[in-house]
Amino acid sequence: MSTDVKNLEAEREKRTRPYDPYAQVTIDEFLADLADRREKCPMSWSPDGEFWVASTYAEISSVMRRNNRGFVSFPNIPDGTLVFGQKRQIPIELDGPIHKEYRRLLDPLFAPGQINPREEQIRAVANGLIDDFIESGRCDIIPQFAFPLPGTVFLSIMDWPLEDAPQMNAWVHAFLHGVPGGTQEETDAARAEASEKSRAYIQKMVDERRANPGDDITSMIVNYEIDGAPISDEDLSDLFVMMMMAGLDTVQSVIAQSMNYFAKHQDQWAEMFSDPELLDPAIEELLRWTSPAVPTRSVADETAQVGDLELKQGERVHCPLAAANRDPEQFPDPDAVDFHRESKPHLTFGMGTHRCVGLHLARKELRIAFEELHRRIPSFELEPGCEPHEHLALTWGVEDVRIVFEPGERLGAA
Question: Is the pLDDT of residue 180 over 90?
Answer without folding.
Answer: no
